[in-house]
Amino acid sequence: MRKILFLFALLPLLILASCGEKEVALPTWTGGAEMTLSKSTSLADVVASAEAFVDKQLLLEGTVVGVCKGSGCWVQLDDGKGNKFYCKSMDHSIAFPKDCEGKTARVQGTMLAQPSSGHSECAHGEDEGHEGHEDHAGEEAHTCPSPTYLVNIEGAVLL
Prior knowledge:
The chain is an alpha+beta fold. The protein contains two helices and six strands; from the N terminus they run αβαβββββ. The longest helix is centred in the first third of the chain and has 17 residues, at 2-18. The relative contact order is 0.23.
């Protein structure tokens, strides 16, 4: 009788153990091309040696800590360990929701090196980057960052 009771007590644990697969979060937003890479590169590796990844396809994942307030063309990702990296849709074909800060993003694209010009060449309006203006689309005046290295976004999801 004890053995039977023991088996009945053990049964729920076995069922739970067999269902122990990692839960996969479904995207709440998608943009651009379908993601084809399955393994992400750590933000720490990218920050430490961005030049080694130039012209390579990457999948990055992190918390969105910054987003373009003009058109949503860029996001800054953070791994929670002090490593942050910019990702931008260089052709402005991908527009992140402007309220996506705090969400987890997966971004796939090609690492680019670009000379630092002091301000971004965002195409939000003719006078982009100048304080106190609103462009002809009625967007807020802002300046987009111009990092030396960035990932040109080809596909992205928010979780």
